[in-house]
Every structure is written in C-alpha cells, then in structure tokens.
Amino acid sequence: MSRICDKSLSGLRGLLAAGEVKAAEAVEACLERIRATEPTVRALISVQAEQAMDRARALDAAGYDPDMPLWGVPVVLKDVLATKGVATTCASKILENFVPFYDATAVARLKRAGAIILAKANMDEFAMGSSTENSAFFPTTNPWDPERVPGGSSGGSGASVSAGQCFAALGTDTGGSIRLPASFCGVVGLKPTYGRVSRYGLVAYGSSLDQIGPMTRGVEDAARVLQVIAGHDPRDSTSVDRPVPDYLEALGRSDLKGLTIGLPEEYWGRGVSAEVAESCREAVALAEELGAATVPVRLRLTDFAVAAYYIIALAEASSNLARFDGVRYGRRDRDSADLLDMYVKSRTQGFGEEVKRRIVIGTYVLSAGYYDAYYRKAAQVRRLLRRDLDAAFEGCDLIAGPVCPTTAFRLGHKVDDPLAMYLMDIFTISANLAGLPGLSLPVGLGTESGLPVGLQLMGPAFGEDLLLSAARVLEEAIAPLPAPSGLA
Ligand code: GLN
Q1: Which of 161, 293, 310, 359 is the most exposed place for a label (fewest CB within 10 A)?
Q2: Catalytic residue chosen out of the listed positions 177, 318, 346, 430
Q3: C-alpha–C-alpha distance, residues 190 and 33, integer Å
Q4: Is 78 labeled as catalytic in the residue annotation?
Q5: Which residues, including other chains, have CB under 8 Å from residue 465's CB and lie 6 or more apart?
Q6: Of 320, 245, 257, 328, whose CA–CA distance to 288 is shortest?
C-alpha cells in the first residue's frame, strides 16, 4: 500500500479518478509512510490523522468529482499557515497553543479543490532560518542523510514531500525558504511572483517579501497546486487582480527552442562548490541541447543583496512580531508585576534566540538615528537590484544558476554562525527583493556528497507559466533522482 506514496500527485490523481485508489486509501498510505519515516525525519509538528480520514471518507462517499482538481490528494502545510481549528505554531513557543478560527486563503482554496490536509510541517521559528534548526520544538533531518539539514525555513515541507509522506506541501519563501529546502531535499519548489498567491492567513515575517508556494515531487504537480492557490483575494491588498493562466496547458512544450537563458556571472563563480557547479552546468548544457540559447548577464548587486535583505526582512519582522505581546495571541506570562513586565516576560520566554536577534536588529535599523543609514539604504539597493534584473530580462527569458552554493550541510554545522547561515541565501533573495518568481528543480546528485543539487530558474513577474514549462522540459530530459538514500 505504501507504494501509493511513491506516485506523483499527478499519478495519484489518475488512480483516484479511475477509482483504482480511494481517497481513504491514499490517506492511509500516507499515514503509514509517516509512521515509518517520522522517527528519523521529524518533518511534522502535528498530524491531523483523524480529520484527514474523516474528510477522505466523506469524499469517497460523495464520489470522485472531476471539478475538484485536487480531489482526495493528501497535502501537508507549513505550520505558518492558519488552519481553522488546528494549532498553528510557527514552530514557536509563543504560539504553541494558538488555534486559529479561520483558514488561510491558500488553505481554503486547497480544501475547496478537494485536497486533504494531513499535517502541519516543521519550520524555522517564524520562518527565520535556512536549516529548520531554529524550530523551537525539534530539528528536521534530510531524508537523503539524517545527519544533514533539510534546508529551511520550509524544511519540514521539503522533507515530508521528499520522504513520500504526502503528495504536495505548501511552503513559504521570504528569502529562499521554498527553493532552498527543495534543493536540499531533491524536490521541486516554486516561489511565485509577489502578489500571485494571497498571503491572507500567512503569519507575516517580511510582508513585502513573503510568498506561499508549492513543494512537490514533480513540475506538473507544482503546476497543479499553483493553479489552485493562485489568484486575487480581496482579503489581501497585495494580491494582484490579474487572470491566472492555465499552468497545465503551459506545460505543452517539448523543447526549449526560442528561449534565451541568462547566466549571471555572479552566480556561477566564486564560492560555489565544485559539485554544485558541475550538476548545474550539465543541466544548462542539456537546456542548450534542447534548443535554448544562453547568454551571460550581470547582476552586479548580488554581493549587496544579502545585506539589503537582512535589513529589510528584519525591519519588517520586528514590526510584524510586535503583535505577539501576550495579550492578543498565544503564551502569556501569568506572574508579572504589571503590564510592561507581562509583555517583557511573555516575549522573553516565548521567542527563541534567532527571533530575538532579528527583532533587535530590525528595531535598530528602523530607529530614528539609523533609519537613513540602514533601512533607507537597503531600500535603495533593493530598487537598483530590481532595475538590474529588469535590464537582464531584456536580454533573456529566464535566468539560471544554482539555488545554493553547496548541498545540504550537517546539522549543527552553522547554528552558531548566523552570518554563514545567512549566506546560504545569496542566490535566492534577489527574487524576493524584486518580487520575481523562482523555481528550484532537482538536477542530479552531487558527485562528492551524493546529495541533491537544485538549479534555480528565475522568471519575469508573473512568468510562472514560462518557468514551469521550461522546468518541465528539463525535468523530462534529466534522469530522475532515485529514492532518498537516508530512508533505506
Ligand atoms: N533564510 C532566510 C531568512 O532566514 C529566508 C527565510 C525565508 O525565506 N522564510 O530570513
């Protein structure tokens, strides 16, 4: 039965539609896989086994509905997405017992499309991190090697999909948190254009950067999930009112003829490990064989992107996290002398180290004396960076490079060195700062580490259809990855 879990989402849909697999069987298979893998992987903060089974039985009783594009498909959600009646912790002690009374729009849309919510995935606390080691509860491990991190901050989502616990997961990406774990875990991850997917019900980290997106075992699966969650939402004023293309139809192309891929000099040189460069270069060579032209492009501000990002994201975080004051949500200290004491104690006990570090930095860069020196400068760099990317896209259709300079690193290896951790985001954060879509595609296993390598494709705003179609052509030409080696 657990072989059902080795199917792609698209494969499962076929079986469900044909009546060969019941929704309840799909859920049971996932629960069985969760029981088998979770002791090592630890991808999930909570599993909604009973609710999922009830929902599956109800779907089975009503019969397959071709108008529900994710009918009977078990999915996992990063625990930063509000779920009605189900604890939403953000992997933080401060929200440990927080149960929202509404669903995030992306979650509501998944449910409406017939998806079954199976579990809430582990993450770095409030999505702050690149390894999922900042979870207040426990670290998640990489299904390819239990001594390695799955990447972060959507590491639980990535590991869960990679381990076959579900057929798709939602992650969120503020500076790379979908693409990095997708790359480390050998799955597909797509960060949509800012505004493509509603952020309503997503607990905000950096509101001008955050996007929700799919993590799946294949490109077609990502297209199916994006189709469901994308689109305008009156509840999120930053969601864009623009028609959603048919992403599945966009997958029709069979080669890359007529496409020009830009290769930023800054993404292919210094600091990239030999094995990552090699796998990514092979993938680009394959793209050329498939008809794509490649051109060099310059993204001169890449070196400043990390600094600008960690000012803007942290400034926004310090403001967004002010709402966790012990009054409105979550944990409250019960024996404080007065109101201020209660705020201080609730926050001191509720937030972890990294979150506190970021609140302090974020508050500092916004403070009266330093605003001009830091925040305003970072905002200027952000604008220039966007201009560079726009200029690059005048000469190419897509931009390609590694997702991350290395493959998955060892647990504990970078936790004490926040700057080294921040540098993991060097190639992913530009897309967030500029609001552009980015996709991580597994392109092979590193020759040295034997771990997955992800190629990042960036596209122009609202170019998800192009990203997906190009990624699909490449995916079909690349030998599929074997099952994750850490689970054997
Ligand atoms: N690693 C980055 C950070 O810690 C990105 C996180 C994210 O995308 N949520 O801010």
Answers
A1: 293
A2: 177
A3: 25
A4: yes
A5: 245, 246, 247, 250
A6: 257
Centre a 10 Å sphere on the Cβ of residue 42 and count the other Cβ atoms it contains. 21
Residue 319, C-beta contacts closer than 8 angstroms, at least 6 positions apart: 362, 366
* Nearest atom within ligand 1 for CA of residue 130: 1
pLDDT at 271: 87
176 lines ligand 1 (CB under 6 A): yes
> Alpha-carbon distance 343 to 177, whole Å?
30
Q: Is 237 a catalytic residue?
A: no
The superfamily (CATH) of domain 2-262+395-487 is Amidase signature (AS) domain (3.90.1300.10)
Cα(54) to centroid of ligand 1, in Å? 35
Whole-angstrom distance, CA of residue 72 vs CA of residue 118:
11
Q: Enumerate the domain spans of the chain.
A: 2-262+395-487
Q: How far is the CA of 123 from the centre of ligand 1 (A)?
A: 11
Which is the catalytic residue, given 10, 130, 131, 153? Answer: 153
Distance 333 CA to ligand 1 centre (A): 29
User: Within 10 A of 212 (CB to CB), how many other CB atoms are there?
Assistant: 30
Question: Positive or negative, the Cα torsion across 125, 118, 148, 210?
Answer: negative
Cβ(127) to ligand 1 under 6 A? yes
pLDDT digits (tens, 9 = 90+) for 278-315: 999 999 999 999 999 999 999 999 999 999 999 999 99
Catalytic hit among 7, 10, 78, 198: 78
Supply 426's token pair: 């060097």
pLDDT for position 2: 56
Q: Does ligand 1 lie within 6 Å of residue 175's CB atom?
A: yes
Please tell me the predicted confidence (pLDDT) of residue 176: 98
